[in-house]
Write a structure and sequence with these properties.
The complex is a heterodimer. Chain A is an alpha/beta fold. Chain A has one domain (2-251): Rossmann fold, CATH 3.40.50. Chain A has helices spanning 45-53, 75-81, 98-106, 112-121, 140-154, 170-186, 199-202, 222-229; strands at 2-12, 18-29, 34-38, 60-65, 68-69, 83-86, 158-162, 191-195, 207-212, 215-220. In chain A, strand 4 (60-65) and strand 5 form a beta hairpin. The radius of gyration of chain A is 19 Å and the shape is globular. The model of chain A is unreliable at 235-241 and 244-256 (pLDDT under 50). Chain B is mainly β. Chain B has one domain (7-280). Chain B contains three helices and 21 strands. The radius of gyration of chain B is 20 Å and the shape is globular. The mean pLDDT of chain B is 92. Classes of the chains: A alpha/beta, B mainly beta. At the A-B interface, helix 2 and helix 3 of A face helix 2 and helix 3 of B.
């Protein structure tokens, strides 16, 4: 269980004062829960995720993980306790093979078969990826999916994914959604927190947290919150075809 | 000749040539300026030079799948060992050559080894060359290695050279020269890690003389503490050739790195590219590995190991 108590995070505003990114935020995320944090850009979602992982230190407030106060623990210590974090913009490593990164994530040498399974879960279906380097030779979408595979290999008790869909093509996104659904369906004490704007991910959630201006403005189930988020709730099996929209080409701006 | 290797000798040999005991096939092991043991194979003949110190290695045309070891170790302080090793590789060969020098110096006097290696590759031959330099010992005496490598490549030959110096060498000046005939290809990989007050200078001059010849230079280095590194790779294209030079350095502490990649074209069909980058370890790399449970120190070591792998 993760408990955030009166969390505040401020940064200098450049005029001698401070700007509040996270504003007295309290939130509890139970075990076995699939939580999606959503909300407008600049609302503090990524910052909140970084505060949980320890990448940023709160100005005040408390973070408890399974009852233990982790507010002042290092990133490494939190990782060892079972918190994992999938970066929105993953780092690249010259000379490091994908296999090595997965081994580090798992904390042991993984059998090839297991590695291939993690990669196929993120839509990278070629064993040749294992010997590729995690450097500029990989596309943005490939690096992003490898990043997610490292979290699958690490298998943390609490996994936080920061916009996992960003930079991923539609086909791989389908595979990824299935993977999240499978992890959740297993219900083996693991919790997933995903920062996302994607309807398909939001509707998988047990609970949606709507974050705006560093505050939780609403929480609820997809049924409760999706209509007000502007999404129409659809069944997981598929979505009904919408009738073709009449396009007026002259109204589409050509400057962007 | 009796073989008498101390534990220090054996660990140096393992470090620089991956050897545990005497290798199979052709080899020549030199210690403190003296021959320890030599062995020829049916197709590889090693003979002592008569004019200068060193050896000639003749590899018969068509030799394939053999490895030649010519490691050098220096355990005596105050010694300056200069050696000329010349490889004559016949046509259509496919061989591996493992060289390297390990210095163990536990005194205050300098130990120096200057190896001048020349390679003559026959037509359509393939050579894989690995050279590791390494220094150890508690003494304050300098450990100096100044290797010169000359490569002469005939038509259609291929050579990959991996030259590695990780830790322990106080001062090094490396000179690498190559001439490539038509259709030949050279891949030159240099890996360097300096620390404390060490200095390393690497000069390269690669001349692409024949059409369709190509060279790829990959230099990766880490400069720690107060060490200084200077790179001067120069590729000269005189034909319809391709050359690519890539220098990547990670800088730490108060180290200094200077990279001056040069390209010169004397043919309108020469395609030459150079890239050079110097920077510290990126913060997001460290943070990522920490989120996977590594400490900051472990993360840094992992990043450097992979960078130089």
């Amino acid at each position: 269980m993760l408990e955030l108590k009166n969390l505040v995070f401020e940064v200098p505003n450049g005029e001698g004062g401070t700007k509040r990114i996270i504003d007295d935020l309290s939130l509890t995320i139970g075990d076995d829960r699939f939580t999606v944090i959503t909300g407008p850009n600049g609302g503090g979602k990524s910052t909140l995720a970084k505060l949980i992982m320890g990448i940023e230190q709160p100005t005040s407030g408390q973070i408890l993980f399974d009852g233990q106060d982790v507010t002042n623990l290092s990133i490494t210590a939190r990782a060892k306790l079972g918190i994992g974090y999938g970066f929105q913009q993953p780092a690249r490593f010259k000379g490091m093979k994908v296999k090595k990164l997965l081994d580090i994530a798992a904390g042991r040498k993984l059998p090839m078969l297991a590695c291939n399974e993690y990669l196929s879960k993120v839509g990278l279906c070629s064993a040749s990826y294992l010997t590729r380097e995690v450097d500029k030779s990989l596309s943005g979408g490939e690096v992003k999916r490898i990043e997610i595979a490292t979290i699958l290999a690490r298998d943390p008790k609490l996994a936080i994914y920061d916009e996992p869909e960003a930079g991923i093509d539609l086909w791989s996104f389908d595979r990824l959604t299935e993977t999240f659904r499978d992890i959740h369906a297993a219900r083996d004490g693991r919790s997933i927190v995903i920062i996302s704007h994607q309807e398909r991910i939001i509707q998988l959630a047990d609970e949606i947290v709507l974050l705006r201006d560093g505050k939780v403005v609403d929480t609820g189930t997809p049924e409760q919150l999706m209509p007000q988020l502007g999404f129409r709730l659809t069944s997981p099996g598929g979505c009904p075809l919408s009738s073709p929209t009449e396009l007026h080409l002259t109204e589409i701006p050509t400057t962007c | 000749m009796t073989v008498d290797l101390s534990p220090i000798d054996e660990s140096l040999l393992a470090e620089i040539a991956g050897l545990h005991g005497m290798p199979k096939g052709a080899f020549n092991i030199r210690r403190d300026g003296q021959l320890v043991e030599r062995h020829n194979s049916a197709f590889i003949e090693i003979s002592t030079k008569t004019d200068v110190p060193g050896i000639d290695i003749h590899i018969a045309p068509g030799t394939k799948g053999e490895t030649v070891y010519i490691p050098v170790i220096v355990t005596q302080s105050g010694l300056k060992d200069v050696v000329y090793n010349t490889f004559y590789i016949g046509e259509d060969c496919d061989v591996k050559i493992v060289a390297g020098c390990g210095i163990h110096n536990s005194s205050h006097e300098a130990s120096e080894h200057d190896g001048i290696h020349s390679f003559y590759l026959g037509k359509n031959s393939r050579v894989s060359y690995v050279e590791k330099h390494y220094g150890e010992g508690e003494g304050t005496g300098e450990r100096i290695l100044n290797p010169t490598t000359n490569v002469y490549m005939e038509e259609g030959s291929y050579c990959e050279m991996e030259m590695v110096q990780l830790r322990g060498v106080t001062s090094t000046v490396r000179d690498t020269n190559a001439e490539l005939a038509a259709g030949s290809k050279l891949v030159l990989v240099e890996k360097l890690l300096t620390h404390d007050k060490q200095t390393a200078v690497s000069n390269m001059k690669i001349e692409l003389k024949g059409d369709d010849s190509s060279v790829q230079v990959i230099s990766r280095s880490v400069a720690q503490d107060d060490s200084v590194q200077v790179f001067n790779p120069l590729v000269i294209g005189e034909a319809a050739c391709r050359g690519h030079v890539q220098c990547d350095a990670i800088i730490m502490g108060n180290a200094k790195v200077k990279a001056i990649p040069g390209i010169e074209a004397a043919s309108e069909d020469a395609l030459l590219v150079h890239e050079a980058a110097i920077g510290k370890i990126a913060g997001d790399q460290i943070v990522k590995l920490m989120t996977l449970g590594l400490t900051e120190e472990e993360a840094e070591k992992e990043i450097l190991d992979d960078f130089l792998s």
